[in-house]
Design brief:
Number of strands: 2
Largest sheet: 2 strands, antiparallel
Distance between the termini: 51 Å
Number of helices: 9
Helix content: 55-70%
Radius of gyration: 16 Å
């Protein structure tokens, strides 16, 4: 699938990132900072096709883009868009596409793994990708309660 087909499936990268923001709980700027939006939009559109992408977009149409909208989102999503929403969220958080039940996940790239939102949610870096410095393990992370 060409990038233009991915853009057609999602309505553009901006729409894809806005939709991903609702699903992930991260802001649009935080998602853009990963540098993975274009690659993810293209991969998912190629993997599932434009139809499911459009169905997910339609389910989210008019939904306020706030964390409180998560419950309403679950109510709006039929089974197919819900599966896509779960897979897309997994992709953003881990850099892996979960695949079909019983199959191994697909790791998109080393960069996708390193840019996974799970590491930001934990306040750190993916193992082997950050440079915290010697002895940093002995200090409490920023924001930790002692």
């Amino acid at each position: 699938m060409s990038l233009s087909n991915a853009a057609e499936a999602w309505g553009g990268t901006e729409e894809f990132v806005a939709l991903s923001s609702v699903l992930s709980g991260f802001s649009v700027p935080e998602l853009e900072k990963t540098g993975m939006a274009g690659a993810y939009a293209e991969f998912v559109a190629a993997r599932v096709g434009a139809g499911p992408c459009r169905a997910l977009r339609a389910a989210l149409a008019g939904l306020p883009r706030t964390p409180e909208s998560v419950a309403e989102l679950a109510e709006r999503l039929a089974e197919e868009p819900l599966d896509l929403a779960r897979s897309l969220t997994c992709l953003w958080y881990t850099g892996c596409w979960p695949g079909q039940p019983g199959s191994a996940p697909t790791v998109l790239s080393a960069r996708a793994y390193a840019e996974g939102l799970v590491w930001r949610a934990l306040g750190g870096h993916a193992p082997g990708t950050g440079r915290p410095g010697f002895g940093s393990w002995s200090e409490a992370p920023d924001g930790a309660v002692r």
